[in-house]
Amino acid sequence: MLEVEKDSRIPFINRKNKKRIMIIALSGLLLAGSGVWAYQTWFTSPSAAAMVRVQTVKRGDVTETVSASGTVQASKRVSLAAPSGGEAITALYVKVGDHVKAGQVLATLDDTKAKVQLKEAEANLASARAKLAEATKKKTAAEMKTLEANVNQAKAALETAKSGYDTQKARNDLEKAKAALQTAQKTYNTQKTLYEQGFISKNEFDQAKASLDDAQIAYDNAVLQHNQAQGQAGSTVEQAQAAYETAVQALNDAKAGPDAATVQSAQASVVQAEAQLMSAQKALQELTVKAPMDGVIVTVNGNVGEVPSSPFIEMDNSDSGNLEVLADISESDIGKVKEGLSATFTSNSYSDKEFTGKVTLVYPEAKTESGVTTYQVLLSVDNKENLLKTGMTVNITIEVGTHRNVLVVPPAALKTQNGRDGVYVAVNGSSDSAAAGEGKNALPYRFQPVTIGYYASDKVEITSGLNEGDQIVMMLNPSSSTSSNRGQTNGMGGFPGFGGQGMGGPVMGVQGGGSRRGR
Asked: Can you give the pLDDT at residue 229?
């Protein structure tokens, strides 16, 4: 059921009543001053009396929008950092303000060290790949025969070393030297006794002593040669044994095929060498600075011969057809703004141009300045003619949505009574007066609360409280405002001519009412 106020009929103002009202108004003017003068203005003259229009509630389309202002900015900005190796600039091909294409060389830096590192990486990779090939290679039939021959040859050498021929000869020579030494010792002892007894001469004794010395020297040499022969024989056997075992292992490995662990290790070495090569190649490429996109140079930090500071070069797409607009949306409107909504833009620089775009991002955090809370919104803007420039201020209209074929009323019809939105509805056959469209305030009416949907500058959606064909009463007094600014109400008390205190009491008793300017 619709909530309505008690019906009331507006008394028709005839000449007799008019005279009476004038007398009362003049008396009130002397007592109450300017307040009564206002009532006199409304009720004493037919030309000053509030005029009204009766309008039929119809259906229509309502498009709600959010208005704001914003600043044009580049949609892409790239910072090109200087390499970390401390290389100096060898050539600089751009300056601030230059327009460049993607892939264009902007600058080069000293690449001497990078080229050396690249050569080393290439050599390491080649070595690793060769080792991997060797580890995975299988022996041919000819190679297998060679390995078998190596085993046989090593085995024969080992057997020869173990035979000890050279050792036996040294042992025989030692025995002969020992016997000769013993004989010389006996002869010396005999000659010494004979010499001491005077049977032989000193010359004969000296010869015996010399023979003993020679025998001793020969024996010592024989001992040395014997020891050397034994040592050499042992070393020869060990070497022959090791050679034989190596030959056998090589043959067995060839028969078993590539070793899994060896292959895996060789593969890992190749992967590591490839990574090092890629790193060296990248380091060399970075010394040639190229533009990653079409755009304009906005910063250059460095000169030829200097080590550049970071960011080395900065660029953006401010010369492109796709820019962005950063806008501040009020706290009361931000709930209506969603990503993907269409928007239009106008600029004071181009009064006859309208640009289009969409909402691309709604920032989640609010900002508050001077007690006013707003939310930043990013919008794309089509700038194909390159008319808009970064830093320009534009007016933005974001289209929240359109409700089609809904009940609509003019914004001026909205009133507020006791904090509730509503309109004045004509009752009791007053629709006959609507034929003329306008008339003086002699119509019966009631205040009808309504629920408001979308709100536009020329019409307001009514979602409940009215039916199609209902007659609503609107004031046409020129002093009345029909502003559609939302969230404002007229401070006037009551519908002029239809309510308020005075003139014999309230006609309807709609104290506190006023013109509704929006939600």
From this structure: 67
